[in-house]
Amino acid sequence: MNGIARFSVAAGLNAERALLQRVCDGLFDCQLLLWRPTGQALVMPGSFERRPGFALASQRCAAQGWPILLRDTGGEPVPQSPAVLNIALACALPIEDEAGKRIVIAYERLLDPLALWLAEHGLRAGVGAVPGAFCDGRYNLTLEGRKLAGTAQRWRRSRDGRPAVLAHAAVLMDDWREPMADIVNRFYHACASDLRCAADSHLALGERLPGAWSEAESLSDRYQRVLAWQGLELGARPLPCPATGTVAGPPSPVL
């Protein structure tokens, strides 16, 4: 099954929460969701709400057309917009898996299919931190030493006691680097933070792959094949529309 769902940013975050909940409830061992925002927002961990200056920063960002939304995973502020492809993979891991390796395993499951897909299009991806990138991290997916995708995880426990993870990647598909870096810097400034990011630390896939969105329509097939090699079978049932949001465009492509 191919396709990319269209959600508002809030509904997309809810869809990812529902994805992890279904794995925790034992309905599926592994589910995938690809989605693209219909609007824009600045998304950050819920802990930011307690930071000095948050209320003022929220007002200023909303006035610039970037309302602030809170997510369950950690990290720093991340701009979400129609320029971003979100990849959410929820899995339950065997209890016998070594606890110290679970984070790495989850990121490998998330990024290996994406890196292989990029290689099929002649693009060699790397993994690592990129100075000056917004929400920088060790498990960024990079091209030419610049950040292509940011990653995050959220861990819970399934009903049968297994560790369950939602691993997420936000891939910059279109060149919105300047406005995205600008709104993150405006947020930091309003919060009296010295942190700043730079547009040139990022690279959009569309800058190197013509027709990136059309090519990405087949990305779920690549995930299905690679995960099958790893002994994981993606669930066959579709994900219902989140109660607090609606789907704009084609139905969810959850496998």
UniProtKB/TrEMBL annotation:
InterPro entries: aa-tRNA-synth_II/BPL/LPL, BPL_LPL_catalytic, Octanoyltrans_LipM/LipL
Top-level taxon of the source organism: Bacteria
Domain BPL/LPL catalytic: 26-217
Alphabetized PANTHER family for the sequence: OCTANOYL-[GCVH]:PROTEIN N-OCTANOYLTRANSFERASE, OCTANOYLTRANSFERASE LIPM-RELATED
Name assigned to this protein: BPL/LPL catalytic domain-containing protein
Lineage, highest ranks first: Bacteria, Pseudomonadati, Pseudomonadota, Gammaproteobacteria, Pseudomonadales
